[in-house]
Design brief:
Shape: globular
Helix content: 40-55%
Largest sheet: 8 strands, parallel, barrel
Number of helices: 22
Strand order of the largest sheet: 1-2-3-4-5-6-7-8
């Protein structure tokens, strides 16, 4: 083998976001993170993924924490390493599309509060739904010199998802003005030799750095990383070992050891990584004993490869069937999922398309007739309100579910008729506003944010508004 030039592989550490999102439903509080930040900052990581995805919702809803405050505290503790977030395109971090002015303001405030890299994805890989966020990041980069727009392609399998499709899309992303590309393999579907082909095909069409993100769910992820690195991938996402494997990412220390002494050597210090792992181990034990971390999410689930169903979607489906006392229908629903996905234009299965397809499959099986009952979200998907799918949707299903209705061909924000929402949102929540960012928290989760603002006020004034009599404005003393 001829001497390969040195190309140290870079690693994004996911312990502060996706690792705990995948294994303990995003429940890690900020106070667990802060004491270890200076050590994480010394490793030399490409970036620390620490915000976005479900962290925003979980902070407000379950942890009673201000997500903006978490970001500022992490930024204070991390001096050298870039901070990274996950951003759902036109949906920002919520579940509906927002007008461009909200998207732009969110990007601006994320960067102002400490985010360096914004990883932007769309559940249909509809590039039109990513443009506003990329443009906003680039605008901020020109203005303040900060910000990096990374477009993430939701990886999936299907007739339409050929190597040419991925390579052509990579080229379009470069033309859109993104700074880098991520292959976001949320269900662990990318197998090792396919990774070689995929990276090679994409590299032939773009000069942008390519990052690979996968989950260990199907058991192949470390091998996939090995082949991807040999094929020239630039960055891989890993999790420190106590929160690695299962539905999380491959372990950081294992990948560092794998490439030691090769042209891809990271140069990271294993002793330092061991100290970081030692710090998180007691917290892992605590999560296991409280049941917050389930051993079910730690094993290998090969069904993800058979049915292309991400781990989170499987657990969601099981609980839906449990509620209906229909757990015996599990296999039937699993077989129905690929059929529903095909009817809806073969979208990748990632939030929110995974929930839409999964819930509809459950309904189809439970009602004993396909599409006898369709969810509001299924109808919106068929109307084109989420954007353009890679394949046409089933005309038969369209005629059954939304007969004669108008269908949309524009991007999601335009299909929803959204323009300039900020002022309206601002006036709705004015009484709770203590910082500019509050309007964005309210925009994404109006009810959850309002409950949090009430809680915050109670903490500050020591008056709990939930105990007040709202009608006659009295309070028990």
């Amino acid at each position: 083998m001829s001497e390969i030039e040195k190309k140290p592989i870079k690693i994004t550490e996911t312990i502060l976001r996706d690792a705990h999102q995948s294994l303990i439903a995003t429940r890690m509080p900020t106070e667990i993170m802060l004491p270890i930040l200076s050590k994480l900052d010394q490793v030399g990581y490409h970036s620390l993924e620490c915000w976005g995805g479900a962290t925003f919702d979980a902070s407000l809803r379950f942890l009673k924490e201000d997500p903006w405050d978490r970001l500022r505290k992490i930024r204070d503790g991390v001096k050298k390493t870039k901070l990274q977030m996950l951003f759902r395109g036109q949906n920002i971090l919520g579940y509906r599309p927002y007008a461009d002015d909200v998207v732009e303001y969110f990007v601006q405030k994320s960067i102002a509060n400490g985010i360096d890299i914004i990883r932007i994805f769309d559940c249909l890989n509809d590039l039109r739904n990513l443009k506003a966020a990329v443009d906003a990041t680039n605008k901020e980069k020109e203005r303040s010199g900060k910000g990096h727009a990374q477009i993430a392609l939701s990886y999936t399998l299907g007739d339409a998802y050929t190597l040419d499709y991925w390579a052509d899309t990579a080229k379009k992303i470069e033309e859109m003005g993104a700074d880098s590309i991520c292959i976001k393999d949320m269900a662990g579907l990318l197998v090792p030799y396919r990774a070689t082909e995929l990276i090679t095909a994409m590299k032939s069409q773009t000069k942008l750095p390519i990052q690979l993100h996968t989950h260990y769910t199907s058991g192949v992820a470390s091998m996939t990383y090995l082949k991807a690195v040999e094929a020239g991938v630039d960055v891989i996402d890993c999790a420190i070992s106590p929160f690695a494997l299962g539905t999380s990412q491959p372990a950081t220390e294992v990948m560092v050891e794998t490439f030691k002494g090769t042209p891809y050597d990271t140069g990271y210090d294993q002793n330092l990584l061991a100290e970081i792992a030692d710090y998180f181990r007691p917290y892992r034990e605590e999560c296991l004993s409280s049941g917050l971390m389930s051993t079910k999410s730690l094993g290998v689930n090969i069904k993800t490869l058979l049915y292309q169903v991400p781990g989170g979607m499987l657990s969601n489906m099981i609980s839906q069937l449990k509620e209906q006392n229909a757990e015996d229908k599990y296999e039937e629903v699993l077989k129905e999922i690929p059929r529903v996905r095909k009817d809806l234009g073969e979208p990748p299965l990632v939030t929110p398309s995974s929930q839409i397809v999964g819930t509809q499959a459950v309904f189809n099986v439970l009602y004993g007739e396909r599409y006898k009952m369709a969810t509001k979200e299924t109808k919106d998907m068929l109307r084109g309100k989420y954007g353009q799918t890679i394949k046409p949707m089933s005309q038969e299903v369209i005629d059954k579910v939304i007969p004669g209705e108008q269908r949309f061909t524009e991007r999601s924000a335009d299909a929803a008729g959204l323009t300039n929402e900020l002022d309206k949102l601002e006036s709705e929540m004015a009484e709770w506003k203590q910082q500019d960012e509050d309007v964005l928290s309210y925009a994404l989760f109006p009810q959850v944010a309002t409950d949090f603002f009430k809680y915050r006020e109670a903490q500050q004034s020591k008056v709990d508004l939930t105990k007040a009599n709202q009608d006659d404005k009295t309070y028990p003393v």
